[in-house]
Amino acid sequence: MIDFVEYSRTFLEKSWEWLNDKEIKKLTMTPDFTREQQEQFFNSLPSRTDYFIRGITYNSIPVGVCGLKNITKKDAERWMYIGEKEYWGQGIGKETSKFFVKIAHEKKLESLYGKTYQFNERMKNLYTKFGYSVERIENGIILFRLML
Fold first, then answer.
1. Beta partners for 111?
2. Which of the two ends of the chain, N or C, has the fewest CB atoms closer than 10 A to its terminal CB?
3. Structural domains in the chain?
4. 3-state SS assignment for residue 117
5. What's the chain's Rg over C-alpha atoms?
6. Strand pairing of 2-5 and 111-117?
7. Cα–chain-centroid distance for residue 77?
8. What is the distance between the alpha carbons of residues 62 and 39, in angstroms, rounded to a whole number?
9. pLDDT digit string (tens) for 81-112?
10. What H or E segment, with its residue span, contains residue 18?
11. The pTM is what?
12. What single DSSP character describes residue 37?
């Protein structure tokens, strides 16, 4: 069972491990960051209105993180990563995509968008399956958008 739970220190610690994995770091376009920067990010979350974050569990096991960022009155950028690679291909991306639409409707957004590298076939397929359209391609990065 997939659940979207509070982003806690458990997910913060796992994210240090997950986002420093070379493959995940590349797929998620994650820049280098320090523990101090990560702590500052975590501490900023309660006061942010432009950011929504949740941990992802699979049968109560922390497996990833997802959220919306750059939230405006009209749209938001969706993002996610499954850090536990043995859970890749288990339908978590599909459930997360449904969750994003639910949250976007609650926030009365007009659209959601996401970015991925042109070589990331899994994400391209996920965006396409959920009705996202290619808005533009720039420097090997595709911007997908879903009108709600």
1. 75, 147
2. N
3. 2-110 (3.40.630.30)
4. strand
5. 15
6. unpaired
7. 8
8. 19
9. 999 999 999 999 999 999 999 999 999 999 99
10. helix 9-18
11. 0.94
12. H
